[in-house]
Structures are given as structure tokens and as C-alpha cells.
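Q: How would the C-alpha cells look for this protein?
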Amino acid sequence: MSASASRAPKPLLKKGEVHKEKFDDDAERWAEVRGYLIIFFCNALSCVALFLYVIGQIDAKQELQLEILFLVFKCILEMVTGKFGWELMLHHTAMILGFALNQLPSMQCWAWITVHQQLVHVPFAIRALWRLTLPALGYVRTEFSWRRRGLINVFWISWMLTVGYRTPLILANCILGYYGRHERVPTKVSGLWPARVQ
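A: Here is the predicted structure in C-alpha cell form.
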């Protein structure tokens, strides 16, 4: 290897995920499985809260209160498993502050948008399940198993739908809020735009 090649900068973006093809022992394999199960479980908690919100059992404020609890729980798990770092600390701190701001009376009218942003946990949960179908983990035999292909297809469909509507939702409400200048209040089960105050 030449001296200039060893000093070449590392790429900023990864070109795909790198997964182990073989584990040294069962303990190492189980540690990997446990990590993916933790990721799935944390995202599944958020999915349950979102489902309760969608069926009208809780309102946006309560859903975000649950998200704060889940986030604190996830932080503790990340610290225990050694996955916690500066970037996660900044991300979780910003999320908790955002959720907490939506608890203020003046900001509760926008809590439903923050709830809609949490729908990203649905594809994240599916992706964690997909990772459990790595052949090296022993649950499927090949990369081309129908379970593995099915999960990644459902992930990409749910990812595109979720990410594709989140930004336009925020932009549309910003534009409507600016030009409409009508105060909006959330309904029990918010549609795209909550009802206007009469």
C-alpha cells in the first residue's frame, strides 16, 4: 500500500450495510440478535402508542408523553449495551426538548404534527426484523428467503410512504398557518389538518 493511499480520507457516507457472515461463537451471535431485538422492541413501543393515537384512545399530547418515556427507556438500554454516543445524546436531547415543548399550552395545537413525525418508527421496526433474517444468524438459510425479501420490500414501501408525506405535511401546515392565520386546534383523532376554531 502506498503512503498516499493510507492517508486517503474515509468516505462520509457508507455505501450499504456490512453484516457479519459468520460468528465466532454462539454468544457473539446472540449479542447481535439481542441488539436487533432491542431496536425492534423500542420501535414497536412507539408503534403501539401510534396505534392508540390513530384509534382515538389517546390524544397527541398523551402520545408524545409516551414517546418521552420510550426515549428515556431507549437511552438507558443504549447506555447499558454500550451503543450510546455523542450523536445519540444530541438526537435524544433534541427529541425530548421537542416533545416537551409540545406539552406547553401554546404549542399543543401543533403536537399532532410531531406525532405524525413518529410514524418513521414503523419502517424502523420492520427493518429491525429484516436484520434478524441475516443467514449468519441462523433463522433463514439464504439471502433470498421469502421472509427476508418480503420484509425488505415492506420496509421500502413503508419508508417511502412515511418519509414522502412527512415533509409536505409540515410545509403545507406552515403555508396554511402563515396565509390562513387561523388558529388550529387538534381533534381527538387528527386528520391531515385539525379543525379550525369557530
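The chain is about 60% helix and 0% strand.

Residues 26-180 form one domain.

Upvote if useful.
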